[in-house]
Specification:
Elements: H1 6-26, H2 34-50, E1 74-76, E2 86-87, H3 90-102, E3 112-118, E4 121-128, E5 131-137, E6 143-145, H4 148-151, E7 167-175, H5 177-189, H6 198-206, H7 211-214, E8 219-228, H8 236-245, E9 255-257, H9 260-272, E10 281-288, H10 291-297, E11 307-311, E12 315-328, E13 334-345, E14 348-354, H11 358-364, E15 367-368, E16 371-376, E17 382-387, E18 397-398, E19 413-414, E20 421-422, H12 429-440, H13 452-460, H14 475-479, H15 486-498, H16 504-510, H17 518-528, H18 531-536, H19 539-547, H20 554-565, H21 567-578, E21 600-604, H22 611-620, E22 624-626, E23 635-638, H23 644-653, E24 656-658, H24 660-666
Parallel strand pairs: 2-11, 21-22, 21-23, 23-24
Antiparallel strand pairs: 1-6, 3-9, 3-10, 4-5, 4-7, 7-8, 10-11, 12-13, 12-16, 13-14, 15-18, 16-17, 19-20
The structure holds 2-(butylsulfanyl)adenosine (IVH).
């Protein structure tokens, strides 16, 4: 038999590798081992290096193209990406079915398609002429960021398909729970913070600038909508099946139902199987199947009227309360933490949960040895919600909060009106460590390499007693610490020295002054300009200046003044100033007469853009940013998952609530 030509062999290999990728990544059912796969891949690489003209953009070898980019471009969506109306109740569900029926002419038969609501990051995906040709994040719904290069690293997405017409898809990019465990283990080994949940990990990964890093994140796309594609006649379920037939990845879990009872059944089946899916879901989506009926029902400004999301309630599990340990935080607050018998819950193994404070323990009546119920409410942080009193054997022991700080043995205090017990000793090693870790955090002084473990060593070995001592560190002494070497010690000293260049607002953030978060620190820094000026004020001047900052309430003014004129913290500030720490706060170019001039804005919830960027845009438009809604706040910009209390205060103060997209349109951005 004669050898196939290089181009024939190339085409064969590409087809084979794609088919194996599909079996491995989409079907989770490989038919060859890693070794055989690697051999095919190596042959392809060799062939392309001998015949470079064969290595076209759709080749599996080209999933990771060039190097990192400087930024992500913004691209418009083909059709706006809407969100879904949410419900948690059965009543709302029957109401939805009724509304759908009422919205359709005569006694039209309605068929529903029920499928899981995938908890990931939504994206738009374009195929043109059979080639993966576009990809963007949801963004504000109208436009998103161009993430094509990152999507090309997603192994479930074929780079070439057997359909040449324009195809516009919507999908959720997810990370399997087991993959997140692997990624997090690697991150912890490298001293990086683990991702809190697969959704954050997926969303963060998609927006990274270097596709080579994205490729390691094991992202998967699961398509949930065909926006533009072949004339599929019937409807959504048929579209999903068409996708499957074309080896495009879907969740493969849809069911059709003709009435409310069928819809409920399908939801119950999905919820029942929730823990078995390798990815996180947070509910079910119920869609009117027929495209023509979808068209008749149309959409409101935000949601299609033909679909609704039914959110599942938090997952629960029972476990044993083995012990309660007390942690001391940066502010001295004592937090009791439940040590639990490790139990799987919503995709992770839970072994600890915060009990918040003594009052919470008392109201739960939780005793050591109790069987307790734990829950994850949408988020990753588990809570102890109740005690199984009937399961008590009598050997359970009540927990008593210690009267002394478990770290420095100073008697604890309870401030008036506060539930938290505190260690009042500002020299308490736990507080000192917490303060230094906070100071070095990315949003504060951003000292690279100064993480919890190293701070622990520095404080325990008495090299550092407060943040100012960091600037006196000596490379040789640091290098003598366990697990440190000459190189890492020098890097640390350089990073510490570099932190002197941060503007005043970052220093004020890093000092962790009570009630002064990033926003307030920025306002304060703008008002005073630089550290020397701040230190030059006498108490009356300081109070007058700080009081005049709009949005600073009495508590904040009190807290800043107490910090400035307390002998210990003042000495710390003076030491920092003597080391030359912090630069004058740059004056932001405020657009006088900008679209938001004279307006005050509070931003809350999960946004598509970085919170800091949105703040900067508001300021650049002449607006002021506050972290609370108060009397006089003009706008509350509400992202996803906005808290009820923020919305309530907006109502109370007559503050107008804007979506992120509405804010952008007021800023003249799209
Ligand atoms: S359909 C017109 N189906 O949920 C909007 N969305 O809250 C149609 N999502 O942005 C949405 N799984 O990111 C649909 N099976 C599914 C989904 C799903 C997850 C996400 C999607 C959307 C958000 C809406």
């Amino acid at each position: 038999m004669s050898q196939p030509s290089p181009s024939t062999r190339h085409a064969q290999l590409v087809r084979e590798i794609q088919a194996h990728d599909y079996r491995y990544y989409v079907l989770d059912d490989p038919i060859i081992g890693d070794r055989e796969y690697d051999a095919l891949y190596a042959e392809l690489v060799a062939l392309e290096s001998a015949h470079p003209e064969l290595g076209t953009i759709t080749s599996p070898t080209r999933r990771v193209g060039g190097g990192p980019r400087a930024d992500l471009k913004t691209v418009s969506h083909v059709v706006p990406m809407m969100s879904l109306d949410n419900t948690y109740s059965e009543d709302d569900l029957s109401e939805f079915v009724r509304r759908v029926r009422d919205g359709l002419p005569g006694s039209a038969q309605v068929r529903f398609c029920v499928e899981p609501k995938l908890d990931g990051a939504s994206v738009e995906i374009l195929y043109r002429d059979g080639v993966l040709a576009g990809g963007s994040t949801r963004g504000d719904g109208l436009s998103g960021e161009d993430i094509l290069e990152n999507l090309r690293t997603v192994r479930t997405l074929p780079t070439r398909i057997e359909y040449g017409g324009p195809l516009t898809l919507r999908a959720e990019v997810v990370i399997y729970r087991r993959d997140l465990d692997t990624i997090n283990r690697e991150r912890e080994d490298e001293g990086e913070a683990p991702f809190a949940n697969p959704r954050n990990a997926a969303a963060g990964s998609l927006r990274m600038l270097d596709p080579r890093v994205v490729a390691k994140r094991r992202l998967r796309a699961l398509i949930w909508q065909v926006v533009e594609g072949p004339a599929l006649g019937s409807g959504h379920a048929a579209a999903l099946e068409w996708l499957e037939a074309h080896h495009l990845p879907t969740h493969r879990l849809h069911a059709v139902a003709d009435d409310l009872a069928g819809v409920r059944d399908a939801i119950a089946r999905i919820e029942g199987a929730r823990a078995e899916f390798p990815f996180e879901i947070d509910g079910a989506v119920i869609k009117v199947d027929d495209f023509a009926q979808q068209g008749i029902l149309g959409a409101t400004a935000k949601f299609p009227r033909w679909a609704i999301a039914y959110k599942f309630s938090a997952e629960r599990a029972q476990t044993r309360l083995l012990d309660v340990v007390v942690q001391v935080g940066r502010t001295g607050a004592l937090t009791p933490v439940a040590q639990l018998e490790p139990t799987p819950l919503a995709g992770t193994v839970v072994s600890r949960a915060s009990l918040h404070n003594a009052d919470v323990i008392a109201s739960l009546d939780a005793r050591i040895g109790d069987r307790v119920w734990i829950e994850k409410a949408g988020e990753i942080i588990p809570q102890v919600v109740s005690v199984d009193v009937a399961a008590r054997s009598g050997s359970e022991r009540p927990f008593v909060m210690p009267e002394q700080c478990p770290v420095c043995q100073t008697p604890v205090v309870r401030r008036e009106g506060e539930v938290a017990q505190r260690c009042p000793n500002v020299r308490c090693p736990a507080q000192v460590k917490g303060a230094i870790v906070h100071y070095s955090r990315r949003f504060a002084m951003d000292i690279d390499g100064l993480g919890e473990a190293l701070v622990e060593q520095l404080v325990d070995s008495k090299l550092v007693g407060d943040v100012a001592d960091l600037y006196d560190l000596d490379a040789a002494r640091v290098a003598s610490l366990e697990r440190m070497g000459k190189k890492s010690a020098e890097n640390l000293i350089a990073a510490v020295a570099g932190s002197k260049e941060r503007p005043l607002s970052r220093l004020l953030t890093g000092l962790g002054i009570e009630h002064v978060g990033q926003v307030a620190a920025k306002q304060l820094a703008h008002a005073v300009g630089d550290l020397a000026t701040l230190l030059g004020y006498d108490e009356a001047r300081a109070r007058e200046h700080i009081d005049a900052i709009s949005g600073f309430g009495p508590k904040m003014v009190e807290s800043v003044c107490a910090f400035l004129f307390d002998p210990t913290s003042r000495a710390l500030l003076e030491k920092l100033a003597a080391h030359g720490v912090s630069r004058p706060e740059p004056r932001a170019a405020v657009a006088a007469g900008g679209p938001l001039s004279g307006q005050s804005v509070c931003v809350t919830g999960v946004l598509t853009r970085k919170r800091e960027d949105v703040h900067a845009m508001i300021r650049a438009a002449g607006g002021e940013v506050h972290d609370k809604v108060k009397k006089g706040t003009t706008y509350l910009v509400a992202g996803e998952k906005v808290g009820k209390s923020k919305l309530d205060s907006a109502k109370k103060h007559g503050t107008e609530v804007l979506s992120e997209a509405e804010l952008m349109s007021r800023l003249g951005q799209s």
